[in-house]
């Protein structure tokens, strides 16, 4: 187990709209009370690196945290991880399932954003061991 980073910020989408929170609970179907809960467990949680926002900013796009649709914004870039890689965050074990596909809604932020973040928007993970996570939790890469 190797420490690779920390949670910077957390987001989920209850019926009232996208929300920044200090913590949330997860089970094998995803983030409890999120609108995507139990929809597609292989895409339960979107992990995004602060590097994605830095890349946008380097190209003149000032996007506020959360607009890329991430659930977990981290200070570690996990985009090199392959499907099946596992991360421990808080007391939750995640398995990387796939790279995030781009959605056209990113053009609402800036027309250049989808092409710019083609390989750098985030990665999806599913929950292997349920629990809760909070801002500041350490992130560990498991063997």
Tell me what the structure shows.
- This protein has 143 residues and is mainly beta.
- 9% of the residues lie in helices and 40% in strands.
- The chain is built from 2 helices and 11 strands, in the order βββββαβββαβββ.
- The chain has helices at 50-58, 113-116; strands spanning 2-12, 19-21, 23-27, 30-31, 45-49, 72-74, 86-89, 92-99, 123-129, 131-134, 138-142.
- The termini are close together.
- The model has no long low-confidence stretch (mean pLDDT 94).
Q: Can you list the strand order of the major beta sheet?
A: 1-6-5-9-8-7-11
Terminal CA distance reads 6 Å
Average pLDDT score = 94
Coarse structural class: mainly beta
> By CATH's scheme, which homologous superfamily applies?
PK beta-barrel domain-like
Residues in helices, as a percent range: under 10%
- Overall number of domains: 1
Order of H and E elements: EEEEEHEEEHEEE
Please give the CATH architecture: Beta Barrel
Radius of gyration: 14 Å
Strand fraction band? 35-45%
- State the low-pLDDT regions, or none: none
Described by strand count, sense and barrel closure, the largest sheet is: 7 strands, mixed, barrel
CATH class: Mainly Beta
What oligomeric state best describes the polypeptide chains here?
Answer: single chain
Kindly identify the CATH topology.
M1 Pyruvate Kinase, Domain 3
Number of helical segments with 4 or more residues: 2
The shape is globular
Number of strands: 11
């Amino acid at each position: 187990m190797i420490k690779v980073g920390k949670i910077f910020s957390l987001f989920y989408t209850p019926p009232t709209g996208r929300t920044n929170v200090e913590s949330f609970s997860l089970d094998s179907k995803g983030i409890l009370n999120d609108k995507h809960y139990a929809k597609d467990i292989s895409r339960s949680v979107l992990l995004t690196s602060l590097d994605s926002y830095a890349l946008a900013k380097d190209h003149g796009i000032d996007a506020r945290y959360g607009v890329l649709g991430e659930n977990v914004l981290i200070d570690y870039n996990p985009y090199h991880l392959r499907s099946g890689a596992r991360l421990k965050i808080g007391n939750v074990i995640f398995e990387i399932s796939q790279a995030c596909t781009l959605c056209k809604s990113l053009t609402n932020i800036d027309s250049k954003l989808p092409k710019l973040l083609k390989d750098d928007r985030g990665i999806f993970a599913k929950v292997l061991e349920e629990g809760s996570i909070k801002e500041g939790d350490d992130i560990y890469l498991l063997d």
